Amino acid sequence: MLNDKVYGVYDTLDLVRLNMMILLFHNMELGRIGVNRYQTLVDYLRSPSFSEETFNIPEFKKNVKGCGIKLSSYKEEKNGSCPLKYIMNHINWRFLNLRKKMEHDSRVKITIPGDNRENHQLGTPYQEDWKLVDKDNWETLYYTLHEYLSKKIGELEKKFPSRVKFGEVLYENATETDYQLWSANAVNWNLPEGEEIPGKYQAQEMKFQGPGVFGIVVTPLYGYQELVPNDYEMEN
């Protein structure tokens, strides 16, 4: 719970941890907690020793006192498929946007980081982020994400074979007709035009939000729900 709004009872302890990190980040953005306190709490949550046995709810409540966060219980289930479902839905929507742009304007082409459809680099730098969602099944979650991206890339390749390229993605190459696809998160994927893009790896290469700078969320860190318009129906 954050400021009397219930955020839910999450599927696994790993999801409890991840969503507490998301709420802490939100509090830091709002200035309710300082950077040092945020980092201390995140380090506690990311610790390898964090487990069902070591997670002490009263202790955590004491640590987040003053943040507006309340945690009274969690429900343990089997896997972290929930965030994967949200992110795959976002990916589907983003590739639908690309297809429409390419249908509308025959000049539009896209560059995807990596060597080819199977060996693309969308999400690769962040694959271990999925450990925080489900430490037992994270490799399967990441593999499913990677294969889904490959499928979406393949659909565009088939429809626009000469307009889908692979290689290094760079801010300098991004234009209204040359889209540079890059691995993003819920915080940096869709910023106002001209705003500096925070992050590392491909995000750092993109530098600023602008025409052709096309982020796709591939990590559950910093959130995974509000990534599509409200009127877009989630795929099954």
Describe this structure in words.
The structure is a single chain. With 236 residues, the chain is α/β, with parallel strands linked by helices. It has two domains: 1-77, no CATH class; 81-217, no CATH class. The chain is 37% helix and 9% strand. It has six helices and four strands. Helix 5 links the parallel strand 1 and strand 2 (164-167). The longest helix is centred in the middle third of the chain and has 24 residues, at 81-104. Mean pLDDT is 81; it is low at 1-10 and 73-78.
Biggest sheet: strands side by side, in what order? 2-1-3-4
- Helicity level: 25-40%
Question: Could you tell me how far the N terminus lies from the C terminus, measured between alpha carbons in angstroms?
Answer: 28 Å
Uncertain ranges: 1-10, 73-78
Principal-axis shape: globular
Q: What structural class should be given to the helix and strand makeup?
A: alpha/beta
Q: What is the total domain count? A: 2
Report strand %: 5-15%
Structure annotation, total helices: 6
Order of helices and strands: HHHHEHEEHE
Mean pLDDT, as a whole number? 81
Strand tally: 4
Largest sheet entry: 4 strands, parallel
Rg over CA atoms, rounded to whole Å, is 19 Å
